[in-house]
Amino acid sequence: MSWTNKLLETYEMCASQIGIRKEGTILLPTGHIEQRAQIEVVLDEQGNFKEANELSIDEATTIIPVTEDSASRANGISPHPLHDKLVYTAGDYVTYVEENKKEYHESYMENLKRWVESPYTHPTIQVIYKYLKKGTLIHDLIDYGILTLDGDHLDKKKKFQKVTEQSGALVRFCIDEWDNDIKHPWEDLSLFDSFVKYYESTCQTKDLCYVSGKEIYCTDKHPNKIRYGSDKAKLISSNDSTYFTFRGRIASKNEVNSMGYETSQKIHNALRWLIQKQGFQEHGLTVLVWNAKNIPMFHIMKKIEKVTTEETYALKVNVAIKGRGKEIDPREDVMIMLLESATDGRLAITGYQELSASRYYSNINNWYSQCNWRDYTPYPNTIIRMAYGTYQGKELVVKDKIYKTHLKRLLPCILMGKALPKEFILKVYDQVLKMSKVDEKVWLKSIDVLCALARRESFDRKRLNIGNGGVWAVSLEENRQNHNVTIDFVLGELMAIYHEIEAYSLQISKENRTTNVMKLFTKMKKYPWRTLNRIDSLSIPYVNKLKTKANTLLKLQEEVAKQLHEMSSEQELRNLKNLDFDFVIGFKCMKEYIEKDLKMENQIKEEQNNDNINK
Questions:
Q1: Within 13 Å of residue 609, how many CA atoms lie on the same side as its CB?
Q2: pTM for the whole thing?
Q3: CA-CA distances (angstroms) from residue 179 to 43, 49, 238?
Q4: Which parts of the chain sit beneath pLDDT 70?
Q5: Of 188, 263, 187, whose CA–CA distance to 220 is shortest?
Q6: Which of 209, 311, 330, 351 might form a disulfide with 358, Cβ 3.0–4.6 angstroms?
Q7: pLDDT digits over 379-397, tens only?
Q8: Beta partners for 351?
Q9: Residue 254's closest CA among 288, 220, 297, 205?
């Protein structure tokens, strides 16, 4: 099935939620949109003006009925059926504004009258129509102090909600009933239903809807405001009838796409609602994951709460993923959609996929368990920043276009189980080398990301039977037992030992600066043997300073150096150049082994506490 069918199915399966606002989102009825009102007018049940209020931005959102033309109006006369701007609703507009737009109000009143006199009329619109026939709306708002004059006309300097001139204010109406209960039409389900039925009765011409397969009233005017309130981009548009659209191939746009008005409304309202509820929007790209029954879905773009241990992290992932997975039938379809706009007026679906819920959750579970280093799975945004970002203001920043391009490459690996492109790892490796000289915090973060990606890539190789290497483990001992150790890996181990010797010395003496290992990290990658010997000589002062405190690290250094010489001759090591990213994994494994398994972190803290006591 296509995305249109799935959105239509979603709307119809969630019909019980239409018009009900929940957690700031609402599934709109057909023929309705949300607009921001500036003025609220309260009428009594006899159609008399009672009071008015100026609305703040927080309380301004209002569901209003719209026609096919008014929903997409730009210029010309296209009144909304009920709540609208003063130019339409106020019979005395021309008295207070220097514009001769009497026909706007006349058109509005004619349309409202037809609804009032139809079989689908409603008590609320009868009261509003009775009041508006008096033609005193602006006069009443001036008397009540909502509108102000500059001479004989509305003051152009006064703004509603800081941006809207008085003459451009949208007015919404409500009714104060006999028991002093204020009835809000924008929350009245019976009024929604009244307009839907009335408007359907006015749409007589029928054609074949390509989505539903029914003979119904069709439209070529489709909604915008899909991703957010001010969004002007349309997903479906066929207004280019002058130049290249039909040239020599078809006679009219209806031959390309014929969609029912009701169908279009349901599809767009469902999509808008889903994006508000559970869509992820960043750098101009919208990622949406949903199922037709609106069962809550685990979303890969949402962060899992940070935890402190590997066991706790695994539990959090299990609860987040499998907990959601139990709520949906494994055979149900899960839809994944990517949307972005190339221009302000056009929105495109740049990715769409349907897969079973069981496969979706299996793929996500594999990602979190495989693209993982101890208690850390990098967020997609972090992966892209670490791979393609530029260093600005103590962080890596990526441009929107680059972000969107590479997120579209990364998501299939996460959601569809595709193999991770090795380019991501190599790009992060380059970043590790650059950041070693620039920013220690970003450098360490980039190492974390590289190790997680490399681990996922090793799972991909195993699954696809590519190469002879095993799966990277997160511990030093496991990698040694699994024979994952390469010369590059062991050289990384030695670099970590030298780094910890110097860092240990600097921490005890309370010096805050980067180590020689960090400064020479790039050199180590290019010329490992020469750089290793230089670092060895630079470490001598720190070893002498630490004295017996360095014994554990020096013993470890001897063991690793012995292992290196058993794996390769000195001449081979002298000729070695351009280490692979295994070098960084070896560095990370040994660094964690020293800090966590050898408890060097605790030892450093004890030394610092003893120094403070002695002082």
A1: 6
A2: 0.84
A3: 14, 17, 51
A4: 1, 179, 238-256, 298-328, 598-615
A5: 263
A6: 330
A7: 999 999 999 999 998 899 9
A8: 338
A9: 220
